[in-house]
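Hi P.,

Sorry for the delay on this. The queue was packed all week, but I finally got your sequence through. Input first:
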Amino acid sequence: MDKDKLLKAVKVVGSLLTVVSLVFIIQRLQQYDLNSILSLDTTGTILVIASSLIYGIVIFLGCIPWKYLIEIISGLKIPFIKLTRVNTKSNLYKYVPGNVFQYVGKSQIALEENISIKQVSISIVLDLANNVLAGCIISIPYFLAYVDLAVVGILILVGLLILMGIYFLLRHKDWFKNYIDLLKEPRILKCLAITIIYRVVNYLVTGYIYVVLFLAQGVTIQTQEIPYILGAFTFAWLVGFLTPGAPAGIGIRESMLLLLLGNSYPETYILSSMIIFRICGIIGDILGYIYAEVVYKIANRKNLEE
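Then the structure:
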């Protein structure tokens, strides 16, 4: 099969996965107690809409760290709009049971931009590592406040990371060693630092969205408690992110957040704000994809006119 036919086949599969993902998204939305949304006052409704729109922008820009990594590894310049289109579409695949299709979907960029699939794979792995490291940084305030739970949390996280690392090395040990020298270069280390900083900012934005939705439930918190809540929320997000087979971490993150914050705040408020955040996140994932598609079509139209 030549490249054009292969690319066409990949796009067809991608379109089918997108449709399947949307079906699962609708099913997930039906499982939530939408009364949490419907019972909000005007201010709460505005917050939900604003949160969804902001989350969509976060998803739309989410490929920036990956762009840094894939360009420095491949030595090629990848158009942002092409990368974000692939990334936002692949992001929807996380709702398909198995929690792996989003990574498979990203490989489409290898065909579109003539990049080695190995280079794309290593860039995805490094981006995942940065994601986890940035999440651990944001989680520190919570762990400092609760040392006992910190030990359990760190053990869970380390265990999941070790399992993922072993699986990856066993699957790709023949070619992974070819990139060890590249990882030692100053330019890749600088790139990793930049991408980690971006991920930290990303976590802060999404974390503050949750805090605002939490406050909208009528909960009163002190300013000094915000880093603690952000840390717990981020760690819960990480556990869901790393748990194999959990589509978009659904159920895992909610349970973990109840465990982490349940002794400090009413469980009803924690769960209802998490449900609202989850709905905002689902809408934001779809909006991020729509943003990318609209910008991609506008850019293509301009290129044709020129």
